[in-house]
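Example record for the data management plan.
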Amino acid sequence: MLSGVICDGAVMRRADRLFRIIQVLRRKKRPITANDIAEELETSVRTIYRDIAQLMADRVPIRGEAGIGYVLDEGFDMPPLMLTPDEVEAAMLGAQWVAGRGDSALARAANDLLAKIGQVIPEHLRPLLVEPVMSAPPKWNAPADTIDMPGLRTAIRTQGKIGLFYRDENGAETQRVIWPIAVAYFDAVRVIVAWCELRQGFRHFRTDRIARYEFLEARYPTARARLKAQWRKEMMATMGRRSSAHAAAK
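Corresponding structural encoding:
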């Protein structure tokens, strides 16, 4: 279908736009209007209507209509790794950052990802991998994780509880049972986002301050997606209060 469009520059630009429209639809869970797509792609609404009509004619499973919005049915996939130069460079930068700041398993996965991309992208894009125009600086003096990070990620995926002894910034130690829902990677430290049974609320635990830990067989009962949504809501509320207090203090 789209991979057969390999004519002059103008046609190539249209082919790239068709792929970008699919990508926009792909990442949206709700209908998106032609006007919104046109704004993101910096083109006219009329062009988007014409392109969507072409995609539908090419049997891309797009549903919707003008004025309401469009969605892409689940299960549709494009030819593998039809990447733009910006997408290649984004993948490079992200993989470099993970390789420098993730644990050893994530670092290997990042390097493997780059190797796989290098094997399948078109020849004209490979110089972007060999001589990238961007780079992520190495991490300096980052404290070591004192918990098994691959095991932690598995516990998050399977909604497994973790028992741990945790030291605060003053060295005081407490025993906790937590429901891990995410890991936040900052420049120098990694933080577990979790519901804490001891505090009956969301807490953040630095991975370098865990004295002892145990991956428990028990599973926490609330869906992780629901917990993450609740945590985000609380974080937004906290940020709003801080912003209001800061504004009032001026």
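Summary line stored alongside the record: The chain has three domains: 2-72, 85-130, 149-244.
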